[in-house]
Design brief:
The chain is of the alpha/beta class. It is built from ten helices and ten strands. A six-stranded mixed β-sheet has the order 6-7-5-4-8-10, sandwiched between helices. Belongs to the HAK/KUP transporter (TC 2.A.72) family.
Length: 304
């Protein structure tokens, strides 16, 4: 799923994590304007600014320590020898700014708590959701072995988007369960984003012919490219020596409707928050530029 309909622009051709989100930029502008109107002067904002800067400095120090230990493979004593002086200075500055919490310093604290809560709720909720979905998965090889025992086949092509090509997509299972049919040709399509800005057209498509009319297709995009699944499928069909007709292809997409439960994995209010955030996502078909009149959404209710 894709959060909201906000654009994500990659501003660097070398760093995949360097992005610009216009919607967030406008939200920052509005928030800063509101803060200026509330505090009225820069002197009154000093408390909020000072606490925010010192906490950021301390977090940067911790991140450098983590980087040195985990990625640069420094010895523990070397990391401590390098980090402790900086951490000591940061803590001195931070402790002095803690006195400003009641005179404006509470603003960055509240903002940080809200953002952190949203991020961790989303992360935890996605983990719980994926665990529940994984419990209902069926290995693709087992499914293909018993395919003759399933329902009848109809003409046409069915495309199932999946992030785990080794298992049967949920949309395929739901279609078979409720409609009792399979298409003549079924394509399991996986989208992968590479850590390079652009992927060579010759390396974009990887196809694999399975049995009983099933095909596995992997489409690679660079992080600066806009995915266009119908266009890439045309290339894949050419590789497979199949006739491509978009009006003869149905794209099956899974969409889950989440229901808060009394699960002990996450508190009730966080479950409700995650459900609200999930509802705010836009269909993955929009992101991949799949025509709406070719999309079939098959969903289910899942308690989290």
């Amino acid at each position: 799923m894709v959060i909201c309909n906000s654009a994500v622009l990659h501003t660097s051709a070398s760093e995949i994590g360097q992005i610009y989100i216009p919607l967030l930029n406008w939200l920052l502008f509005i928030s800063i304007t509101i803060l200026i109107l509330i505090f009225e002067s820069s002197s009154k904002l000093a408390g909020a600014y000072g606490l925010a800067v010192t906490v950021t400095m301390f977090c940067d120090t911790l991140l450098v320590a983590f980087l040195a230990y985990s990625y640069w493979k420094w010895k523990t004593w070397k990391v401590l020898l390098f980090i402790i002086p900086f951490a000591f200075i940061d803590l001195v500055l931070l402790s002095s700014n803690l006195l400003k919490v009641l005179i404006g310093g509470w603003v960055p604290v509240v903002i940080a708590v809200i953002v952190f809560t949203l991020m961790m709720t989303w992360k935890k909720g996605r983990e719980i959701l994926q665990d529940k979905l994984q419990k209902d998965t069926l290995p693709l090889n087992v499914f293909l072995e018993h395919l003759e025992q399933t329902g009848q086949k109809v003409s046409g092509n069915a495309v199932f988007l999946t992030g785990t090509p080794q298992v049967v997509p949920h949309a395929l299972l739901h279609n078979l369960k409720h409609n009792k049919v399979l298409h003549e040709r079924n394509f399991l399509v996986t989208i992968k984003t590479s850590e390079i800005p652009y992927v060579d057209e010759a390396k974009r498509i990887v196809t694999e012919v399975l049995e009983n009319g099933f095909f596995r297709i992997t489409i690679h995009y660079g992080f600066k490219e806009e995915p266009n699944v119908p266009h890439s499928l045309k290339q894949a069909f050419s590789v497979l020596d199949l006739e491509y007709d978009l009006m003869n292809i149905s794209f099956f997409v899974s969409r889950e409707r989440l229901i808060p439960s009394l699960s002990s994995k996450m508190s009730t209010w966080r479950e409700k928050l995650f459900v609200a955030m999930q509802k705010n996502t836009s269909p993955v078909s929009d992101f991949y530029k799949i025509p709406s009149n070719r999309v079939v959404e098959l969903g289910s209710q899942i308690e989290i």
